[in-house]
Amino acid sequence: MSKVxxxxxxxxxxxAATARLAAQQGYQVCISYRQQQETAxxxxxxxxxxxxxxxxxxxxxxxxxxxxxxxxxxxQKFGRLDVLVNNAGxxxxxxxxxxxxxxxxxxxxxxxxxxxxxxxxxxxxxxSRRHGGDGGAIVNVSSVASRLGAPGxxxxxxxxxxxxxxxxxxxxKEVAAEGIRVNAVRPGVIHTDIHASGGEPNRVxxxxxxxxxxxxxxxxxxxxxxxxLCGDEASYVSAALLDVTGGR
Length: 248
Known about the structure:
Protein name: SDR family oxidoreductase
Keywords: Oxidoreductase
CATH topology: Rossmann fold
Structural class: alpha/beta
Shape: globular
Order of helices and strands: EHEHEHEHEHHEHHHE
Domain Ketoreductase: 3-183
Strand order of the largest sheet: 3-2-1-4-5-6-7
Family: Belongs to the short-chain dehydrogenases/reductases (SDR) family.
Organism: Stutzerimonas azotifigens
Helix content: 40-55%
CATH superfamily: NAD(P)-binding Rossmann-like Domain
């Protein structure tokens, strides 16, 4: 039986690229989305046209009840889970910390931190040998911002991704003996739509000069790192924070 991968926030960008590559490598794929239903369903149709098996489920990862329903839908469709890719994330308009209010911070941390924790919780319940599972892998999508800090732009987002780094390290050690590997990728400046939501659609072009390789990355380049961490070639890799940054 082919393995099952759940990718949160996968209607576009890094998540969609990961779903395509996973399907090409033989995974059955479940993707979640918050608002982009049409885009998510097109991705499912694309995967199925190529002979794969996929499911799209609406779920706001900031809402615990919706996360639980997401995993229940996965159980019903596939009956197992082998890999979780905690990809869902968001940022708000570029802003200095002194101008941020508590409501913004709550939104940023609810999606980027709490959502990832709850998804990891549900995945561990299904994959851990302690709970009768067969083991598996969790890959958290962090960001190079966690070590650069994103000053003047997204200090809150950077801090949220710092929390994901810490969760990756702690959870990896917590479940290692139960057959689950936990790692993170930390993308740098990547050509995705997330920059537009922060108010600067062309941000990659502005900052690419700070990247030693002299360019922004592509979503597919991050996806390849994610798939490597998920697979057997990374069988002795856990608690790793893998930068995909062009050397930045």
